[in-house]
Structure formats: structure tokens, C-alpha cells
């Protein structure tokens, strides 16, 4: 006799164990709401600016004799950049030195004549006016000598200008002139020199944020010191932190912002003048705050909420109030207590009131450290 469909179902039910007939509880991953140290932060857009940037110019006229640098290279303070032909300046220096030697001889003669007249006046064999004339001539000789010594110093300075050197360490730009060109004070920039280490980043901050910060600072709710970090244009984080060293006293009327500046060490020249970067200000002193993993927080029209597992292994929907996100965790200001288990994985498989099989989230393995 053939079994009917109903008979097959009854037979299958008799052969299956009871546990297979019961509905399986959905498996979810949970993590506790924990008190963690949070450093308040805020993000802005900033512009990298060199601490020093100058046009290198010629201060004296002459034919360019030598270019002493490689374009785009890093040069030390005092490094030679250009050499201007100095023959005329050396010749002029030698001429002045000769004039000084002659003037020293004239001064010596005038001094001897003054002493002779003084002796004659003492013996009363010469009139006082003759001594006065001798004194005047000595003063004239000394004045001429001083004038020539001043010309000598000026000529030495002119000669030194034929050697154009870097006033500070930096990156030298493209040269605008070639060897043999006639250069001078009116030639314009010969090249540029840019200092990249340290380097500065300026960024505008809304006036309202600055006022809120000052109010919270006055109430003791925030740390006065902040660390600045940068997100580079390629998405990477600049490894060195900076310090805010300037807050403008003026508000930009067009944007209603206040300009801030942070300074960074830049030993490898990663930060380039004019680059657009992301700036994150982070308080140096953290505070203990209730947080949950960021992936546990859901949002709908009523606002943020989490699905948590209670002591009876049942799911509850809990409306919460949130603060800012920090390193993958979300600050919870209301709606949860420390130790509440929120669902981080498997949220799409549950609904309020369902019994679940909850497993704790895996704890990341500690990063190995080298022993001392």
C-alpha cells in the first residue's frame, strides 16, 4: 500500500529528534557599553604654509659667474647659491685701501706739524693762531681717513654681495637666470628658497565653535591644550602631531570664522607649501565616558537607537542620545547603562522580543611589543 503525503510527514516527524523541531534562536554578537577614555576632537580643512619663503635677489650688478646649487635640492643655511663676477669690486677695494694708506700718511704729517707748532707756542716763538691752523689740518686729515674707512667697509659689503648664499635652510627652486647673464637689483627673483621644517598649517574655525570652546574652558569642562593631527590628500594620517600656536584676534566677516595656526615638525619634507589637508584638533586630556561600538548604533526618523540583549536573552530596542564618534566607538549620553549588551552583528536577523543566542565580540589580540 502506497504511503500518502500525510503519512510521509508523520513518519518523518517520528524519526527526527525533538531538538530539530524546535525553532533555532538567532545567533548574534554583542558588546557591552563601557566607560572609555575619550579625547574630544573636531575636524577642519587647512592649508599648509611654509614658515619662511623668500625670493633670492642680486644686491649688486655683474655678470653671473656660477650657479652653485641643484634645483629642488635641500640646502643648508649659508650655502652658496650664486657667484657674481667680482673683479671690479676687488679692484675698487684695492683702490680704496691705497687711498687709506695715503690718508694715514697725511694724518701723520698733520700730527707732527701740530706737535711742532705746539712746542713753538710753548717757547713763545710762534703765534697761537699757527697752532690753531695745525690743529684744524690734523682734524681734516683724520676726517678724511674716517671717510675712506667708511668707503672701505661699504666696498667690502659690496664685494660680499657677489656671493649670494642661503639665509636659512630650505628647498631651493628653479633658477630664472643662466651663467653669463647680467644680473642686478632690478633683475627680479633669481630663484626662491622655501623652509619646510618646521611648517605651519592655518585653518578657519567658525566663531560659534570658538565661543563654545571658551565657555566650556571657563567652566573647566575642557582641556586648554590640544593636539593637532593632519589627514593628507591621499587619505593617510601624518605621523607627527602639532601644536596650535596662534589664534587670530579678528573674525573674517565674509565667512564668520577665526583663523588658527598649528606648527608641525617636517623633517622628511612630506608636507608641502600650499597643500590642502584635513586638521583634527584633539584634547590632550581625556575623560571617562560611556561608549558603544559604532556599528551597534542605528538611526531612523525617531533618532539613534540600539538593539540590546537583556538578562532573559531577549532583544530590546532602546532609544539613545549620542555624542561624537572616537576611534570606532560612539559616545552615549543617555539611554544606556554601563554593562548593557548591545548587538553589533546580526541586527538584521532580530526584532524586539525575540530570544537570541548571544555571543560576546572577540577581543582583538594584543599587539606584540619588543622586550627591553
CATH superfamily of the largest domain: Efflux pump adaptor protein, beta barrel domain
Strand percentage, roughly?
35-45%
CATH topology of the largest domain: Elongation Factor Tu (Ef-tu), domain 3
Oligomeric form: single chain
CATH architecture of the largest domain: Beta Barrel
Domain count: the total is 4
Number of helices: 5
Tell me, briefly, the overall form. Answer: elongated
Between the first and last Cα atoms, what is the distance in angstroms?
83 Å
Runs in which pLDDT lies below 50 for 5 or more consecutive residues are 1-22, 365-372
Q: What is the average of the pLDDT values?
A: 85
What class do helices, strands and sheet pairing give? Answer: alpha+beta
Total strand segments: 22
Cα-based radius of gyration, to the nearest Å = 42 Å
**Main β-sheet: number of strands, strand sense, barrel status?**
6 strands, mixed
User: For the record, what CATH class of the largest domain applies?
Assistant: Mainly Beta
* Element string (H = helix, E = strand): HHEEEEEEHHEEEEHEEEEEEEEEEEE
Amino acid at each position: 500500500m502506497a504511503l500518502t503525503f500525510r503519512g510521509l510527514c508523520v513518519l518523518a516527524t517520528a524519526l527526527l529528534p525533538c531538538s530539530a523541531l524546535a525553532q533555532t534562536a538567532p545567533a548574534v554578537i554583542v558588546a557591552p557599553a563601557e566607560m572609555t577614555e575619550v579625547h574630544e576632537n573636531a575636524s577642519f580643512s587647512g592649508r599648509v604654509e611654509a614658515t619662511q619663503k623668500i625670493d633670492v635677489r642680486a644686491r649688486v650688478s655683474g655678470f653671473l659667474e656660477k650657479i652653485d646649487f641643484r634645483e629642488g635640492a635641500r640646502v643648508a643655511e649659508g650655502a652658496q647659491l650664486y657667484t657674481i663676477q667680482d673683479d671690479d669690486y676687488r679692484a675698487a677695494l684695492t683702490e680704496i685701501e691705497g687711498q687709506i694708506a695715503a690718508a694715514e700718511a697725511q694724518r701723520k704729517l698733520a700730527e707732527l706739524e701740530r706737535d711742532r707748532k705746539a712746542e713753538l707756542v710753548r717757547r713763545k716763538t710762534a703765534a697761537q693762531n699757527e697752532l690753531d691752523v695745525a690743529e684744524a689740518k690734523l682734524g681734516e686729515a683724520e676726517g678724511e681717513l674716517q671717510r675712506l674707512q667708511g668707503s672701505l667697509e661699504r666696498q667690502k659689503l659690496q664685494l660680499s654681495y657677489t656671493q649670494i648664499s642661503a639665509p636659512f635652510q630650505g628647498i631651493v627652486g628653479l633658477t630664472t637666470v643662466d651663467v653669463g647673464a647680467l644680473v642686478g637689483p632690478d633683475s627680479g627673483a633669481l630663484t626662491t628658497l622655501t623652509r619646510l621644517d618646521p611648517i605651519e598649517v592655518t585653518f578657519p574655525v567658525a566663531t560659534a565653535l570658538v565661543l563654545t570652546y571658551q565657555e566650556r574652558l571657563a567652566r573647566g569642562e575642557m582641556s586648554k591644550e590640544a593636539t593637532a593631527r593632519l589627514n593628507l590628500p591621499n587619505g593617510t594620517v601624518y605621523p607627527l602631531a602639532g601644536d596650535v600656536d596662534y589664534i587670530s584676534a579678528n573674525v573674517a566677516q565674509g565667512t564668520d570664522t577665526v583663523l588658527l595656526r598649528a606648527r608641525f615638525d617636517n623633517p622628511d619634507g612630506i608636507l608641502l607649501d600650499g597643500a590642502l589637508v584635513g586638521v583634527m584638533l584633539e584634547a590632550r586630556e581625556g575623560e571617562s565616558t560611556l561608549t558603544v561600538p559604532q556599528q551597534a548604533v542605528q538611526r531612523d526618523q525617531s533618532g539613534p537607537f540600539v538593539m540590546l540583549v537583556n538578562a532573559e536573552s531577549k532583544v530590546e530596542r532602546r532609544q539613545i542620545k549620542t555624542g561624537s564618534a572616537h576611534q570606532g566607538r560612539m559616545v552615549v549620553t543617555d539611554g544606556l547603562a554601563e554593562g548593557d549588551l548591545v548587538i553589533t552583528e546580526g541586527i538584521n536577523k532580530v526584532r524586539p522580543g525575540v530570544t537570541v543566542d548571544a555571543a560576546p565580540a572577540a577581543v582583538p589580540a594584543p599587539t606584540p611589543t619588543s622586550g627591553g
